[in-house]
């Protein structure tokens, strides 16, 4: 099965120039485009669908669920929001970085090869990433999973074309945040050396200027038992973070345009931290959540 799927991944089907009909989760209504455009200019939905929102909504619960992609600069929090949506919609959150780390810690066939690549500071090839991804999707299907939310893939045009050639991505959510805030958030990242928990000590409080709204993002502080065990990633320096953002922007622009032309790109400007951004993101996606207290817990 894995070999057959992998072969399909590299046999691209012809790409249509017109935006396809999008299959969305039943919680999402036909008004997604209008909701996106009316959300205080925080969201922009690209493509002809905004003028003629004729979405095909899943009615039979036995059919597949959403197949979404999260894009965003390092430090923007796409993993956090992707994970929250995966719990809310009942689909797996698949982060390619996690797949690489899991393979490295295993005795799988790629672990030794991956270790050599990572130790040399090289980029993991498309072939390896796609092999890990196809294996993860196959294993999930065998367990009854339907749909997914991808985080960290695709990052290049080639990866986008490969993914488009195998499955129908419904929506690409592109999280946006000012670069100065991204840098501050990246420099504030901390990890507990004992439990591995991730935290952020940066406290963002920027006043609104030139018609732009203020942005406040509270720090994500550790519990008392982790406070004395926090460490900083060696590569979380201002110089490295800026270069990482520059490389990401150069690579992401063609990918964003790829999905923009297909009417699948939803750009969401984060208005603040999780308490401010989470309900607005749900509103833009036209998703209802019944347990508000749980959803806003940091």
Automatic annotation (TrEMBL):
It is an enzyme of class 2 (transferase). Transmembrane segments: none annotated. One of its GO terms (molecular function) is ATP binding. Keywords: Kinase, Nucleotide-binding, Transferase. Its EC number is 2.7.4.3. Coiled coil: none annotated. CDD domains: ADK. It catalyses: AMP + ATP = 2 ADP. The keyword Phosphoprotein does not apply. Belongs to the adenylate kinase family. HAMAP family: Adenylate_kinase_Adk. This is adenylate kinase. It comes from Acorus calamus (Sweet flag).
